[in-house]
Structure formats: C-alpha cells, structure tokens
Write a structure and sequence with these properties.
This protein is mainly alpha-helical and 120 residues long. It has one domain: Helix Hairpins, CATH 1.10.287.3610. It is 90% helix and 0% strand.
Length: 120
C-alpha cells in the first residue's frame, strides 16, 4: 500500500510541475494570455470594490478564470497545429479558428455574467 501512495505523490508532483511549465510557457509566448490575466485582475478588483455578495464575486472570478482556461487550450491547439506543419492548410486554419472561438465565447459569457450581476 505504501508503494501506491508513493506513486500517487510522484504522479501529482509531476502533474503540478508540468502544469506550471505550461502556464509559464503560455505567459512567455502569448500576449493574449497576459492581457486576459490583467483583465481578470482588474475584474476581480472591481468585484471586490463594488458592493457584491461573496457568491457574485466568486461567479465573476470563476468565469474570468474560464477565459484563461480557454486561452490555455487555444494555445495548446495552435502549438500542436504548428508542430505538425507550418504550411497553410484549411484544417489547420479551422482548428485555430475554433480555438479562438472558444476564447471569444468564454469572454462573452464572462461579460454576460458581469452584466447580469450588475443590472439583473
């Protein structure tokens, strides 16, 4: 049984290290990720400045973080497509456009959440 727990600790440790590496690589290479991070910091600050409930703040912050998750996924898609080939191809464009649409839709949802919380 001790071997099982040791393997789990190693697995979780490795996953954490790889996740941090992915976030750092995205931060270093993607201006959009940095911009969305700044937007999230400002959004969270505004959520705490306004007279909102804890639940409303949590929802705003959660949906803001969803944009960052979408941007990470989009970066993974773009990196994978570029790894396969830098040549122009309709399927490559489609994959990248879909990834971009995920980010855009996430941002629209976060905006809708803000508007619903502010104006009901």
């Amino acid at each position: 049984m001790a071997g099982f727990w040791k393997r789990q600790v190693v697995r979780v440790s490795n996953a954490t290290i790889w996740s941090i590496a992915g976030a750092r690589a995205t931060w270093a290479s993607e201006a959009n990720f940095r911009q969305w991070t700044l937007a999230n910091v400002l959004s969270a600050m505004l959520a705490f400045w306004l007279d909102l409930s804890g639940l409303e703040r949590a929802v705003i912050i959660g949906f803001g973080l969803m944009i960052l998750v979408a941007e990470l996924a989009n970066t993974a898609i773009e990196t994978t497509v570029d790894r396969i080939s830098l040549d122009q191809h309709p399927l490559s464009r489609k994959a990248k456009d879909i990834g971009s649409a995920v980010v855009a839709l996430s941002a629209l949802i976060a905006l809708a959440v803000w508007l619903l919380i502010l104006f009901g």
